[in-house]
Amino acid sequence: MADPAADPPASLQVFRYTAGDDTVRAVIGEVEAGLPLEDLVAHATQALESETFMCFAVSQSGDFVADELCFVPRGERCEILSIRTNGWQRHYGDHRRSLVEILNNLAAAVACGKLRILDEAELLQEAQAGTELLHFAIDDSASLTAAREAVDVILQGSDIDDLTRQRTILCISEAVTNMLLHGGGRGSMTLRRLDDRLRVVVADEGPGMDFLNWIGPPTKKGQASMGYGFKIILDYLDAVGLRTGRTGTTLVLDRKTD
Amino acid sequence: MLRTTIAPGPAPTVFLAGEMDLDCADNLREAVAEAARGAQTVVLDFAEVKFIDSSGTGIFVRLSLDMKSQGTPMVARSLSPAVKGVFDMLRVRDLVGDEVFPD
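Predict the joint structure of the above. Result:
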């Protein structure tokens, strides 16, 4: 049974099941003691066999270590997204998007192939693919402007239309802003050229994505929640890779250029 | 960087130009506060805003709600395509109310 006093009010975990295995492994978060692995494997197997994206609301937290679970089949493996709310109110005024909506949006993005949850090996491979065009440190809001300008200059030389270019710049701005506000305030941005796309890797060594930020209202100064930025990123880019944990967050942002 | 110009009058207008990101909060708040002195409403003109992100949008939403609660509501007009696209995506109208967008 979750202890609201001891545990964070909400957390996202992602597990991965590969067909034929008898267990799951953690991609975001940890496989904690007490996790009902057999149930997870059974549901993941069902999702794979039926090729169906399945979500469950779990009303008895003692029965299942999550309040909401989504099983997303992707070829030979099934991504399992879980949000544990520990009693946190799901709806809290007009500004707060529900955690369930967030989870469902993330799961839908994984299901359609737009969002890839990356493990360490996948991240290393994706972050080093192609040819590096530019790498610079991000540590203040002035570098936010520089990041936008750098992407703009490179995209000006491609065949994409103005609207797509502007939306791409918006997405980079969102990713870098998230880093400045929530990712420890510093990190790096790397632009890479792949055969058919521009890849922007935004990395920090902050505390990892805190999904509570996603349901918070704008702060007194008006800083918007991280969820809005991530929604823009998922809606406008061609592909997004995400790795997040206690040692940092990396976003791999792709814009097709041909 | 966000630039602001105030046109005084019965319904003073704050003309916005440039970029609205996480750095625009103080600039925007100061301009609106100055324009609001003695006024019943404040108009924000977005025609020359070339870029806005979710941070800039959040700052506008927060300020709009604050001004409404203080009795000097804001009105937004002449949204540039960049602003309109982001406001529509983030459902800003639902957050601040239809009355903020009389156009």
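Chain A has six helices and eleven strands.
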